[in-house]
Every structure is written in C-alpha cells, then in structure tokens.
Amino acid sequence: MKQEEKRYLDQLMEVLMSVKSKEEMEDFLRGLLTPTELEEIPKRLQIVVRLLKGQSQRQIADELGVGIATVTRGARELRSGRFKVVKRLTSSRGNLKW
Predict the structure, then answer these.
(1) Shared domain check, 95 and 49
(2) Do 64 and 43 form a contact (C-beta atoms < 8 A)?
(3) How far apart are CA 76 and CA 82, in angstroms?
(4) Distant-in-sequence, close-in-space partners of 18: CB < 8 Å, separation ≥ 6
C-alpha cells in the first residue's frame, strides 16, 4: 500500500472509531457508500458470522445470494486470523441477533 493510501485508510479508521451512535454510523455509511456497497458490505459480515457458526460455504452462498468465491475469500481471511472483533462479539454475546 502506498504511503498516501495508508494515510487515507488511517483517516477512515479515525472517523469510524469516532462514531458515537448507530444513527451517526448509518448516516456516515449512507453518505460514503453507494446503495450497492451498502447492500454488499453487510453481506460480507454475514458471511463471517455464518462461517463462525459452522454453516457450509455453499449454504451461505445460496442463502445470501453471493458467489462461492466471495464466501471462500471470507473463509480464507478468517483462517488467516482476521475478524477478531467478530469472533469476540459472537463469543461474548452468544447467539447474536445479527
């Protein structure tokens, strides 16, 4: 990642970490993302949540209407150690409503 791109990512993370409420986050995301991105990004989170619950990749792809490659990518990232916050939330809250 180029130095400038890293700075932009750092700025985005600072903004995300400063959000104080769900309403503020929704407002920010609706302003930042296209309607399609706003549909697709939550599906990516659902992929990780469902993989953590033990659901099969094929079932996840079918239920969410995404390609198997998208689910496989999520599984690969999960195996590489990413999504610690999602793991923490799913284990600390048990059966999340999301």
Answers:
(1) yes
(2) yes
(3) 9
(4) none
Which of these, 75, 79, 45, lies nearest to 58 by C-alpha position? 75
Clarify whether residues 40 and 5 are in a common domain. Answer: no
pLDDT per residue as tens digits for the range 44-61:
999 999 999 999 999 999
CA 5 to chain centre: 20
Alpha helix stretches (DSSP H) within the chain = 3-18, 22-32, 35-52, 57-64, 68-79, 84-92
**For range 71-86, the mean pLDDT:** 96
Domain range for 57: 33-98
Output the pLDDT for position 96. 58
Q: Are residues 57 and 75 in the same domain?
A: yes
Nearest to 83 by CA among 41, 34, 58, 48: 48
Domain count, the chain: 2
